[in-house]
Design brief:
This protein is mostly helical. It is built from eleven helices and two strands; from the N terminus they run H-H-H-E-H-H-H-E-H-H-H-H-H. The chain has one domain (5-219).
């Protein structure tokens, strides 16, 4: 096959151009990969600092463990606990018997050689996570913030404060309402008077911590709604149209969170969740209005 000199030069020029473009594309890919790994590295250090904060809080909890165990963890096992006193006052005001908790039968036992030491370690870690959660949110916010536009930063400027507030309210609600109600019911429940309740320390700690932490996480619902609405996944119209289904889901969640079968406890748990859902609708509506306004300003400009 015969190539003219002009064709050969053109072919070589095309090959050279393709080679240069391939090198440029490879450089861009390497640059994007480096950028990705740099983000991973930055996230790693944010998480490391958050974990160090949790370790510090865990050490503080371990040092002051006597106070934490007697006054906080064992609080719901004491008939003088704040919740039980308020229930007695409520029963007296409504002239209804059965509200006052006069006894919490049962005894905590340890069935493992290292059980009590493990109990102190595990409960200290749980306290450390609770205390370090706001700092974890702060580190995550510091990681996400540079990727946001100025208006998005202003719109989400109170993220850490709101998320921390909701988490604390949820933890307090779980500790002062759900946990004592559940413990009082389960401790007083008897199939037969001949059966004595002996609770392992692991079972008791697991019940208190799970009920408390789970409620704190559930109370982050408005924050989740804000994120999903900002991404365009949720809209207030959709949340209003699915309200009846949400009520059913909330009742199921309340039944799962509270191991007690009585309707009073389920109602007490369901009401805040329903309020949080309605707050979520308002949050989604605010996000949607901001999006519409932003698009309108963009079109006018």
């Amino acid at each position: 096959m015969h190539f003219a000199p002009g064709d050969l030069q053109s072919t070589m020029a095309n090959l050279g151009s393709k080679l240069v473009n391939a090198i440029k594309d490879k450089g861009k890919n390497i640059e994007s990969e480096m950028s990705f790994f740099e983000h991973i590295e930055a996230l790693r250090w944010h998480l490391i600092r958050a974990c160090l904060a949790i370790v510090v809080f865990t050490g503080v909890a371990f040092y002051f463990y006597d106070i934490i165990w007697n006054d906080i963890i064992m609080g719901p096992m004491n008939v003088n606990f704040w919740t039980y006193r308020q229930m007695c006052h409520l029963g007296a005001a409504l002239h209804m018997d059965g509200f006052c908790i006069t006894k919490i039968p049962g005894k905590l036992i340890n069935t493992e050689m290292a059980g009590q030491f493990t109990l102190q370690i595990n409960s200290s870690i749980i306290i450390g996570i609770m205390l370090g959660f706001p700092y974890l949110l702060w580190e995550l916010w510091r990681f996400i913030k540079p990727a946001l536009h100025e208006k998005e930063r202003k719109a989400a400027s109170g993220f850490v404060v709101y998320a921390t507030f909701l988490f604390i309210v949820g933890v307090m609600f779980g500790y002062y309402v759900i946990a004592p109600e559940s413990i009082a019911f389960l401790a007083n429940y008897q199939v037969s008077a001949s059966i004595e309740n002996l609770f392992s320390i692991d079972s008791y700690l697991s019940s208190v911590s799970t009920l408390t932490l789970a409620t704190g996480v559930v109370f982050e619902l408005p924050i989740l709604v804000f994120i999903l609405s900002s991404l365009g996944i949720l809209t207030p119209k959709f949340m209003r149209s699915t309200r009846r289904y949400a009520i059913v889901v909330i009742l199921i969640v309340a039944a799962v969170i509270t191991p007690t079968p009585d309707m009073l406890t389920m109602t007490i748990v369901s009401i805040p969740l329903l309020i949080l859902y309605e707050v979520g609708i308002l949050v989604s509506a605010v996000v949607e209005r901001r999006k519409i306004k932003r698009n309108k300003d963009l079109m006018e400009s």
